[in-house]
Design the sequence.
């Protein structure tokens, strides 16, 4: 069966463990190979054309059910955590329920910069479901350093997500060499450009990285949270769960790193960070003006 762009495929040499989308088919020195983007993991890979197989509907359905189950489990854990946060906020905002007051809350505003338009759509849907104010922008990883400054000026976010696709290649160098990664250096430069605009770690909270990204360089560049400490793949939706915790935590509270990571799909092997303040702000009174009926 001939493989075409946008086909969903697996790699025979990996027992089709991950679903990929074919984004390009190229030829080099008489050999054809495909550029692949993970369907549910932020991984980019090159694979020989002969190693690919179009995934049949049954196998694809089975893998998608597994991924969906993981997503639903992670969302349930986040929802439980969010309910506890909400109860605590209401208790504090109403003086322990002794003097109930009308109040309003402003969660942190997110700017999500993504190298994959399909992942961006998935993330935007989850942001909306959770109730996070967000603006999304699709941008190729190589272009991110040039665009981030203007985007920050325009949207003025509290939280910035810089993500897309990445991968480590052993053939290109050691794991400590950032040049051995597909897009880590572009993510690092984007973080640096963002920090030129907002240097303080608690005035702009940054998540950066994708699958197998150079975690240490991203943190040193100024990211609060990043991937991937153990150079493993991360799920497409992991950045959303990280920023959701930050967005709904009051700005007077500091977030323990484990509290941020425990409801993600990947956990501490794929994600890490530094102690960071929340960005939620509470105000009162909340008294919306009612239009008088004529």
Sequence:
């Amino acid at each position: 069966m001939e493989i075409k762009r946008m086909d969903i495929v697996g790699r025979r040499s990996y027992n089709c463990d991950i679903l990929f989308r074919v984004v390009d088919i190229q030829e080099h020195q008489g050999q054809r190979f495909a550029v692949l983007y993970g369907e549910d993991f932020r991984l980019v890979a090159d694979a020989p054309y002969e190693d690919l197989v179009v995934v049949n509907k049954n196998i694809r359905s089975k893998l998608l059910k597994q991924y969906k189950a993981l997503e639903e489990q992670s969302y349930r854990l986040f929802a439980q955590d969010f309910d506890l946060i909400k109860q605590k906020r209401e208790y504090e905002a109403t003086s322990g329920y002794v003097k109930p007051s009308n109040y309003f809350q402003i969660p942190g505003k997110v700017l999500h910069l993504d190298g994959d338009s399909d992942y961006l759509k998935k993330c935007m849907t989850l942001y909306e479901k959770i109730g996070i104010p967000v603006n999304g922008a699709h941008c190729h990883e190589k272009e991110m350093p040039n665009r981030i400054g203007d985007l920050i000026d325009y949207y003025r976010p509290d939280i910035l997500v810089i993500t897309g696709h990445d991968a480590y290649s052993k053939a290109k160098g050691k794991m400590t060499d950032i040049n051995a990664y597909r897009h880590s250096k572009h993510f690092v430069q984007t973080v640096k450009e963002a920090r030129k605009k907002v240097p303080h770690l608690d005035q702009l909270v940054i998540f950066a990285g994708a699958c197998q990204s150079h975690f240490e360089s991203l943190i040193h560049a100024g990211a609060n949270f990043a991937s991937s400490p153990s150079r493993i793949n991360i799920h497409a939706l992991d950045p959303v769960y990280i920023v959701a915790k930050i967005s709904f935590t009051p700005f007077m509270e500091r977030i323990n790193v484990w509290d941020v990571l425990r409801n993600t799909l990947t956990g501490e092997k794929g994600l890490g960070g530094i102690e960071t303040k929340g960005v939620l702000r509470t105000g009162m009174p909340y008294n919306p003006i009612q239009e008088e009926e004529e």
Summary: Residues 71-283 form a domain with the Rossmann fold fold (CATH 3.40.50.10090). The mean pLDDT is 86. The CA atoms of residues 74 and 263 lie 6 Å apart.
